[in-house]
Structure formats: structure tokens, C-alpha cells
Specification:
Blueprint: H1 2-9, H2 11-22, E1 26-31, E2 34-39, H3 42-58
Antiparallel strand pairs: 1-2
Amino acid sequence: MSPFLGAVYLSPLDSAMEKLCIKKKIFYIRYVDDVVILAKSRWDLRKSLKVLYSVLSQLKLKVHTEEKRFIGRTDKEFSFLGYF
């Protein structure tokens, strides 16, 4: 039930990010409540984060800023849902 509710509740976020993906500015993927955003430039990343926080604010949600967030270069591999 939780994945279904997450998909329905976060559909506004998916729609907003899809607009940026269409312009080829970012790569966005979400699984339930886990999100990955990859951008070619720092400015594209900042714009996508602004959209992310705006939509989450409207939905009355917050990002775990201390332990669950990574913002930085992806020169090295990273793990998402156990995959590298």
C-alpha cells in the first residue's frame, strides 16, 4: 500500500521534474520516497532543487537534510537502493 500512496501523493513532484527532464537539463528518478537528480551543470541542479523544495513545501513534506541527502560531484560511484 505504501508504494501506491507514495506514487499518488508525489505525482506533482514527478510532473514538475518531468518538465525539466524534457528540456534535457536533468535526469530524475524516484522510487517511493527516494529521489535521484543528476544535472550537467550546477545551475541546472540549483533550478531542479528549487523546484523540488517548492513542490515538497506545497505537499507539506521535508527532506532529511542531515543524514539522507548528498549534493556533490558524481565522479565516484554512489549507491541508490543498494545498486552502484
